[in-house]
Amino acid sequence: MSSPRPKDVENHGGMTRVSKEPEHELQNLVREGNMVRGDVEKPIKSMSNLTLLAAAWNILNTWWGFGAVFAVGITHGGPVTLIYGMMLLSLVYGATALSLAELSAHYPTAGGQYHWTHLLAPKRLKRLLSYCCAIANVVGRLGICAGVTVANAQFIMGLVAFNSPGFTIRRWHIFLLYQGINVMTFLYNAIALYHLPGTHQVGCILSIVSFFAITITCLAMANSKQSSRYVWTTFVDESGWQSSAATFLTGLTCPNFGLGGLDGPIHLSEDTFNPARTVPMSILVSLFMGCISALLFVVVMLYCITNLRSLISSATG
Asked: What gap in Å lies between CA 52 and CA 46, rounded to an integer?
């Protein structure tokens, strides 16, 4: 027997439209399998559970993000910041993930944080707080996208410089490559992604294969390795800060960058089946896998890199 509907909730073609004050009945709507949305269009479900999990992994991609800003962690605390900072932020983001998972299970909406803020905030502050939340989310997304894109450009130019010793990297090289990646990403999202949802699985497989290829190769090819005492107890401070605490906190930029994008699956709620179940699962599983892979990656790199100073001072460092 279905739950009674509040007077301010209407159903249009299997989709739910919330018109006034939906807080007291949203759980009933979720049990009926409805999406909480502000319009009446019926979305096209194009993502299976596996596809959503693959997309969540691709958005988070913690080990890759960790590697992109590895040099920051090396100079701001070294192994202590990289390892224990990652452990600390794994706990912090784990608590955040549990909150996001619970909210997305009760209120599955592609709007995510700003929509939840409007639903749960005091009536007189709903619009202001939800607007501020939405602006913060947009600014954060822009920052993450810019950071990821420029990191890709730096990776590519680093490979060119590594294989061509006489080549000198210029800033305009990275800028042009950055803009080229922006254009390619736009075209992919605007044209190809809708017709090729399976590219999420391809990206996930490539990321996982790359992780194992890099870590195993480094372990096998490193002729000498750092001592366990160095890897697990050494604090390096080349940041210029007078306080070790400030150095450690600044170095947390490294693991924090690798954990950005945790809310990605939430904004795909309208594209997947049974979002009240699949979205929370994707958030928690992708975070768990990401934290484990990042810790393994950083420990392997610290054992294999025997001269951190030469790494930092190199053209690609």
From this structure: 10
Rounded CA-CA distance 35/30 in Å is 7
pLDDT tens digits for range 258-313 = 888 888 899 888 888 889 999 999 999 999 999 999 999 999 999 998 877 777 66
Angle 233-238-244 (CA atoms, 0-180°, nearest 5)?
A: 60
Alpha helices by DSSP H, the chain: 26-31, 49-60, 62-68, 70-75, 79-106, 113-120, 126-163, 171-187, 193-195, 199-221, 228-233, 244-251, 253-258, 275-304, 308-313
Residue 44's pLDDT is what?
A: 59
Strands 9-12, 76-77: pairing is unpaired
The 10 Å CB-count burial string (b at 16+, else e) for 268-289 is bbbbbeebbebbbbbbbebbeb
The CA distance from 18 to 10, in Å, is 7
> How many C-beta atoms surround the C-beta of residue 101 within 10 A?
19
Closest CA to 285 of 135, 79, 101, 123: 101
In the chain, the amino acid numbered 225 is: K
Give 267's contacts (C-beta < 8 A, 6+ positions apart): 110, 111, 112
DSSP 172-228: HHHHHHHHHHHHHHHHIIIIIHHH-TTHHHHHHHHHHHHHHHHHHHHHHH-SS---H
How many residues belong to the chain? 317
Low-confidence residues in the chain, pLDDT < 70: 1-46, 312-317
Crossing angle between the packed helical segments 49-60 and 199-221, to the nearest 10 degrees: 50
Give the Cα separation of 101 and 55 in Å (integer): 16
